[in-house]
Specification:
The structure holds 2 protein chains of 2 kinds. Chain A is α+β, with helices and mostly antiparallel strands. Chain A contains 4 helices and 13 strands. Classes of the chains: A alpha+beta, B mainly alpha.
């Protein structure tokens, strides 16, 4: 019996307390404007937090619907991004470069496969004989030279990059006009060496290195890199370190350069050697 | 006996009104012993009855002193509501089950002082912020609360001695 009485008396006490407290607060807000402002401000804050809490709860229960909508939006956006990426690739290949500079025909291409971790690195390009690519044509970028096309298939071509011990390129050191072979240093993805330079030519560190134009593979005056440390080899020649502008670690788009006069040059060379 | 208790209660209420109306010590201090008057009401009184007495007492003090009706009342009502819980916390359940009234001689000054301190703190925790109504910095409110508790507690202890029933002394 007593157990049944206790909850009833607690509820009754709480009800009396609430009624009297409300009465006191009402009297307080009626008799003092200062307290009235303070109480109404506090009640607004309580209202705001209650409404805010209600909104949060409502939002929580509509999360499933919101997730479905977001997933749909995400799918549509992904499709758009894929579409734009494809368009961008085509645009870069077709519009970024003029297809002819002096006596060189330029074919833009995208690297589809590349090796970077061996001593004989290579790349595979998405252009082949169907696009007019021929063996022994140059591969360059706007940052310098990349390598030489070695084998050509119908739709793809295989090239050796400058990060290959077999590749040597004719280069010129800007200020003095000194020409020599440029090879990969075998260690870094942007490091090369110019070997066999005569001792009596002075080379200043920081000079720009260009393609010499003496080979029929690369157009002349393409900036390749800058000179670094100079080292004397066997007391007879100088060896200059070159920091390449093109970092082979971040390579995606290239240009294949085909010398249109190459056959004529080869013929006249052959005639002259007879 | 009952009439004597009511008379003492009314006298103390009148003193509280006079104290509140005339004795203005400082803006930092308010002396209130109404919480101990509620705490010392006979243990046989039910909580709704305590709430009604607190409401009327608070209203009388508000009406005759500061004129802001409801200020003391809204702070005193929670004391009345929490009275039995406070007694259970400080003195244990035995006091409530034996229906003994609070007495300094019987329960000891330390426990009574602790109960007074808790009731006074509860009162000023509500009274001081409501009185300042957000117009004073928090530091001022806290200092006023602490000083009022510090001064009101010993005054309340004296009031508890006045309100202590004679039977308790005799029983001892």
């Amino acid at each position: 019996m007593a157990g049944g009485k206790r909850p009833y008396s607690v509820i009754w006490s709480a009800a009396v307390f609430v009624v009297l407290e409300i009465a006191a607060i009402l009297m307080l807000s009626r008799t003092s404007s200062l307290q009235d402002i303070w109480i109404s401000r506090a009640s607004h804050r309580v209202h705001a937090s209650i409404w805010g809490g209600g909104e949060k709860v409502r939002n929580y229960f509509t999360l499933g619907q919101e997730n479905k909508k977001l997933a749909k939006d995400n799918f549509e956006l992904s499709a758009m991004v894929r579409d734009f990426a494809q368009k961008d690739l085509s645009y870069r290949e077709n519009h970024l470069y003029d297809d002819r500079v002096a006596n060189f025909r330029l074919v833009p291409a995208t690297i589809v496969k590349a090796s970077r971790n061996s001593q004989h690195n290579y790349i595979v390009l998405n252009k082949g004989s169907e696009d007019g690519v021929k063996p022994q044509t140059g591969i360059i970028t706007t940052n310098g030279i990349v390598g030489v096309v070695n084998t050509v298939g119908k739709r793809f071509s295989y090239g050796l990059t400058l990060m290959n011990a077999k590749i040597s390129v004719s280069a010129r050191i800007g200020r003095t006009g000194l020409v020599g072979p440029l090879e990969w240093d075998g260690r870094r993805s942007n490091g090369a060496l110019m070997k066999g330079l005569p001792l009596h030519y002075s080379v200043a560190p920081g000079d720009t290195v260009w393609t010499s134009g003496f080979s029929s593979v690369f157009p002349p005056d393409i900036p390749i890199g800058v000179t670094g440390k100079i080292r004397q080899v066997d007391g007879s020649t100088n060896e200059v370190a070159v920091r390449l502008f093109q970092d082979f670690g971040a390579l995606r788009y290239v240009i294949i350069t085909e010398n249109l006069d190459r056959e004529q040059i080869a013929e006249i060379e052959k005639e002259g050697q007879k | 006996m009952r009439q004597r208790y009511i008379f003492t209660y009314l006298v103390l209420l009148a003193i509280q009104i006079v104290l509140g109306g005339l004795l203005n010590l400082s803006q930092y201090v308010v002396v209130v012993f109404l919480p101990v008057m509620i705490l010392s009401l006979p243990i046989t009184h039910s909580t709704p009855r305590l709430l009604l007495i607190a409401f009327v007492s608070g209203l009388a003090v508000d009406f005759f002193t500061n004129g802001v009706l409801g200020l003391t009342t809204c702070a005193l009502l929670p004391v009345a509501l929490a009275r039995n819980s406070l007694i259970r916390l400080v003195f244990g359940t035995e006091l409530l089950s034996r229906q003994e009234d609070i007495s300094i001689h019987k329960q000891g000054p330390a426990k009574v002082l602790l109960a007074i301190l808790l009731a006074t703190t509860l009162f000023f925790l509500i009274y001081t912020p409501v009185d300042c109504a957000g117009t004073r910095p928090a530091g001022f409110v806290a200092l006023r609360m602490l000083l009022s508790i510090a001064l009101s507690t010993p005054v309340s202890y004296y009031a508890a001695g006045v309100l202590a029933p004679r039977e308790a002394d005799r029983w001892r």
